[in-house]
Amino acid sequence: MTTTLWLFIALQMMMGAFDTFYHHEGTERLAWRPGQDMELRLHGVRNLAYMLAFACLGWTMPQGGWAIALILLLAGELFITLWDFVEEDRTRHLPATERVVHTLLTLNYGVILAMLIPVLAGWAGEPSAILPVHYGIMSWFCAIAAFGVFVSGLRDLAAARRCPRLVPADPAPLAAALGPRKAVLVTGGTGFVGSRLVEALASAGHDVTVLTRDRAKALRLLGANPVHIVTSLDAIASDTPIDAIVNLAGEPISNGPWTRAKRQRIVRSRMAMTQHVVRLMQRLRHRPVVLVSGSAIGIYGLRGDESLSEDSEGRPCFSRHVCLNWERAARRAEGLGVRTVYLRTGLVLDASGGMLARMLAPFEYGLGGRFGDGRHWMSWIHRDDLVRLIVHCIARSDIGGPVNGTAPVPVTNRIFTAALGRALHRPAMLPVPAWPLRRLLGGFADELLLSGQRVLPAAAARTGFLFRYPDLDAALAAITGADKRIPTDAPLHPFVTEKGF
């Protein structure tokens, strides 16, 4: 085993770790994507093969039949990798960075085999034996890598078994309340909430137009649905019939620290898009009946333990600044005679995106816990219930003004993280201290991770909206596949919040 060979093996380990953490766990979240069970099985088996190879090469000198067995193991790993490439192309669109990393991994593995196979072939000519060896730091490097791929392999195999339970519920019933066929324009239709809304509306037979900056992304996400895609509102003719507009577009708020430039993008993107929507309504010959415009419960500011409804006042903070400007921009639609709803959403729950998606991996590895002291409130809502609430706001002519998009029973962060641990059958005992979050993320951590609002859906309750997931444990069990999903045709029951709304 030469120094050059060890360098290529170490490079393979590091690139493999990057691919796993950045792509599989980070951007792609394969363990929580429906339909990826075969790819997860291949990853699991390949990782266990890597575990054996790393442990063997780092600490032993296999001879005779054991050397031949290791050659066969490496050949099998190569076959699995080729099979994995076919499966990936069949089931998902790989980002450019993942394709580059896979190419480099393949080339580097070829170099490793070209140098390693002659060594193993020489060992194969000796009498069968497993001789202990020690290559210094590389032996320990192999031990760490073997442990890592062993844990990752077991996790991938377990995730493959769970995968069939992650199939989303039929989206069509989510839009059942809308009634006869409607023409709906959705901005932000490729986003976390917007894509599910578009799927629901299209599946229910409504005419859906989606505004997006990235047509290719929209086709990948929405291609199976009969929707019309535009990259500019100017492409919509003045005589186009539009019954309702749902405005959800804006710079993501939770994908990085709130630098000065990031704050400007967050505010300006929402203001600009809402202004474009208002200008579209001004030139349409037949204006839409309703505009449902995005907002958030951050408009109430940081309010401690106070129970808040749509009539509550707010306290200054950046989140409130964003939401006030967003709602003020949308208010111009009221002057055009368009019924306007300001949808103040809380923490939207689903495995495919949002804050929960980022929490799943660490919690599944047993590394989860409360943020800070865990006493701050988290006002949450299941994504499917939020889609149903948007449809409810479109369908009900008596709904206007602010509507809180939250479930009826908000919980503290301590209760939320404990419930997530239960859903994943993992302990949630490793708290994340407040000071590193504040140091790394600044205001983002203060307002979104370490503080919150105790918000109640008073307007939704007053207008007869019924939640399918009013209970956090049931919502998390459905999202994580810990329990069967509540059927979309199951009866809904009225609820009473702590204030009796």
Automatic annotation (TrEMBL):
Chain segments annotated as transmembrane: 6-23, 44-61, 67-86, 107-125, 137-158
Pfam families reported in the protein's UniProt record: DUF1731, Epimerase
Keyword Cell membrane: no
Domain of life: Bacteria
Domain NAD-dependent epimerase/dehydratase: 184-398
Residues annotated as domain DUF1731: 432-479
Gene3D superfamilies: NAD(P)-binding Rossmann-like Domain
Record key words, sorted: Membrane, Transmembrane, Transmembrane helix
Annotated family: Belongs to the NAD(P)-dependent epimerase/dehydratase family. SDR39U1 subfamily.
Protein's recorded name: SulA-family protein
